[in-house]
């Protein structure tokens, strides 16, 4: 399996942890780590009603693929990688980001998954608009 | 030369536009394009120090030369104004 078999996508529909786990299924894997980023009900003590996500979708998918390639370079034990980002309106508790990594051993899977979400936050062009009871604010790259 | 500029999030809302087509002189850079966009939409001028730029799918510096047909994206400021750090990292962080 190579990065060409991995999955990187920006989607407008709800994300499923079961589905992404199936996408990284591999007989040589001894562990699968899944990270789900979910919409929190407050920011700095201010109640959030809902969020809107917007992306430069084509560039975002290209950057997700770069992250996947970097993971394969750094953790040879990684078997498969899947990274999905949802855009559009999301309610409290819904998943905005799902990342799944399968690896021969759990250490690589945990480390690679952590690297994936941290790097995504820095370089993938996605913005969210937080809607509060009394206003709204855009948060961007590295801001959330 | 013709260059298409894409606007996102706060910039899209501030201008009411998702894209702006520019006619720039040969040899124009990202900075030239930014100035042309601000001429039309002065409300963006305040964000210049925090803006990230991309051509195609790659982050670029303001002095990056543009070619005819380039697609330039203007990315809004991040919370806390940390875009300089983002720009420095964006070029190489995900390289294998």
What does this structure look like?
The complex is a heterodimer of chains A (144) and B (96). Chain A is α+β, with helices and mostly antiparallel strands. Chain A has one domain: Molybdopterin biosynthesis MoaE subunit (Aldehyde Oxidoreductase, domain 3). Chain A is 30% helix and 41% strand. Chain A contains 3 helices and 9 strands. In chain A, strand 8 and strand 9 form a beta hairpin. Chain A is elongated. With 96 residues, chain B is an alpha+beta fold. In chain B, 27% of the residues lie in helices and 24% in strands. Chain B contains 3 helices and 5 strands. Chain B is globular and about 30 Å long. Chains A and B meet through helix 2 and helix 3 of A and helix 1 and helix 3 of B.
Give a topology summary.
The complex is a heterodimer of chains A (144) and B (96).
Chain A lengths: L6 E5 L5 H7 L7 E8 L3 E2 L2 E10 L1 H18 L3 E9 L1 E4 L3 E9 L2 H18 L2 E7 L2 E5 L5
Parallel strand pairs in A: 1-5
Antiparallel strand pairs in A: 2-7, 3-4, 4-6, 4-8, 5-7, 8-9
Chain B lengths: L1 E6 L1 H7 L3 E5 L6 H11 L11 E4 L2 E3 L10 E5 L7 H8 L6
Parallel strand pairs in B: 1-5
Antiparallel strand pairs in B: 1-2, 3-4, 3-5
